[in-house]
Amino acid sequence: MSATKPKKAASAGVAYDAYGLTKKQLAETVGLAPEALYKTSRLQAAKTQSRLREMNEILRRVSAWSGGPMQAMAWYRAEPIPAFGGRTAESLVKSGQAAALRDYLDSIALGGFA
Question: What is the mean pLDDT of residues 53-62?
Fold first, then answer.
């Protein structure tokens, strides 16, 4: 038996405060219905937690080179990524491709080309 550390729940409050979003905007940004962030039972759901964690992880990765949290959110929502056919980070996370985006960001961090 291996003991695994439980994942800390992602906080919607921290996310929308840090990025200047309302709960409704945050829900739309991660591709969820607004109720997913207003109802405690839905906020704790695996899908909601996964999307919030994915978005937060990606935003933390790009925040340093983008100029801060607000600029990272602008990049996340609007900047087309050529390696993904011009799709944004937001659309990739919404469609379940956060892992591919993380791999791409890792390669860029290691000196790869966009």
Answer: 92
SS3 of 26, please?
helix
Instruction: Give dist(CA 94, CA 86) in Å, integer.
Output: 15
Q: Is the dihedral of CA 108, 106, 32, 56 positive or negative?
A: negative
For Cα atoms 110, 16, 45, give the angle at the middle one, nearest 5 degrees. Answer: 85
3-state secondary structure of 60: helix
pTM for the whole thing? 0.78
Q: How many helices and strands in the chain, by DSSP H and E? A: 8, 0
Asked if residue 4 has pLDDT above 60, the reply is no
Write out the two tokens for 110.
């290691």
Q: Report how far residue 64's alpha carbon sits from residue 54's, in angstroms, rounded to the nearest whole number.
A: 17
Residue 45 tokens read as: 């759901």
